[in-house]
Amino acid sequence: MEEAKGPVKHVLLAKFKDDVSPEKVDELIKGYANLVNLIEPMKAFHWGEDVSIENLHQGFTHIFESTFESKEAVAEYIAHPVHVEFATMFLGSLDKVLVIDYKPTPVHL
């Protein structure tokens, strides 16, 4: 299959450290959400907590999804000083993290 054109989704799965308070988690989530207002290449942000009954989460408890127009826009976001500063603080609060960037691709049957 050829690479899809269009937006790129940046997905981060996270498990916060046990000693990070719920108030701190809320503060970090609000800070992450606010990046969409501070970093132009970031077009949208969504997040949620695991609600699956399958118990296949491998310890991850939260998901964060950001939307970008291209792979180049993701690279610009990652290098942006505001992101670098936030990521240092955010990642320091995590016990586990997994990041995947992908292009949503339709299946043509």
Automatic annotation (TrEMBL):
PROSITE patterns: S_R_A_B_BARREL
Gene3D superfamilies assigned: 3.30.70.100
Database matches in SUPFAM superfamilies: Dimeric alpha+beta barrel
Residue ranges annotated for the Stress-response A/B barrel domain, each copy included: 8-102
Assembly: Homodimer.
Protein name: Stress-response A/B barrel domain-containing protein HS1
Phylogenetic classification of the source organism: Eukaryota, Viridiplantae, Streptophyta, Embryophyta, Tracheophyta
